[in-house]
Amino acid sequence: VVSRDSGAKKDTSDKIQTYFESAYNFAGIERLLVAGRLDRAFDVLLEFSPLFDQAVLIVNDAKYGGSGGWLATTSVHVNAPEIALHEIGHSFAGLADEYWAGEQFASERPNMTRERDPDRIVWKNWLGYKDVDIYPHSEDPTWFRPHQNCKMRVLNPEFCPVCTETIVKRIHALINPVTSHRPDSSDMVLTIIDSIAFAVEVVGPTPNTIHSIWKINDQMVSRNVFDFTLVAGEINDDLQDIDLSIVDTTLFIRDTVHQKMQTVVVSWQVQKEQFTAINDFNEFKGLRIYPNPASERLIVEIEGDETNSTSPKRIEVLGIRGQRVYNAKMWQNQHVIDMGKLKGGSYLLRISDDDKSSLLTIIKQ
Ligand SMILES: [Zn+2]
After folding, report:
1. Is the confidence at residue 231, as pLDDT, over 80?
2. How far is ligand 1, taken at its centre, from the CA of residue 177, in Å?
3. What pLDDT shows up at residue 233?
4. Helix pair 80-93, 161-174: axis angle to 10 deg
5. What tens digit of pLDDT does each residue of 175-184 get?
6. Which residues contact 47 (CB under 8 A, 6 or more apart)?
7. In which domain, by residue range, is 38 found?
């Protein structure tokens, strides 16, 4: 969008016209620089960046000023980058000023309170760390701030630990650290034959403080890795609950309730293949099937006298519930079964002629 003029109105008599109608002296406070047409700013964002988490309006005016609200606002004054960070502290994290901004701005916030009891104050976890304490505002000593030298009070120092924690909590609220996981069919029971490889992709800070805990049936089996292989031989026949907990263990957070709330749990259920109660049996002495497990082709061979039969043998592949998924006649002493289209799992191979039959478990890989 284009404005007729550059800069911002300094007072109501100023003739400067801008698209967002930016003006200083909001509510009679000279440095309060606010867009008069927040609705237009919102429309521009909806059109060009509808998924925005935080927007900053930079007003093309060199005079010192800025404001919070949902749209953090700063000018192009030499201190603008610092002002922008301070205003983002308001807009993004809901922080209060730690200087005395006036009675009308005083309210209970993560970094402003009337609570003076060190056991109950909202920043009680931080008392004594990096000069965090309960400092009264001299202008109204019934209100307290956590620090004397925080970016919410003066430009250039860092955010104090209390404000930093609040900002990190806000980031946690916006971001799911797990961007993908596999197998992704977490709402059904997975069948395990030999093993299953589980893995997640995570997004985290630098250095990465995202930690993981893998549990099988509530027992921890692995931690601080993002993949895990479950081997069939290590579990019993019961349904297995596989849970992966992902949590950011950053030292910027001391709120254990928050840590618990923002823990992401990915769950799977796994069970070993449930075989039917039929025992394999084989009446063809020269029968050989290979490879088993098979992925593409399963070869059935019968050697010796049994190939001299005048009638063909029947070959069937049955699913574990008895449904027939393959049916053919075997005229020669070797037959190839195309396994390519079958789903992975166990099947029964039935071979029969007028006199004999075999029933064998085969596995499609
Ligand atoms: Zn602070």
Report:
1. yes
2. 26
3. 84
4. 60
5. 999 999 999 8
6. none
7. 1-93
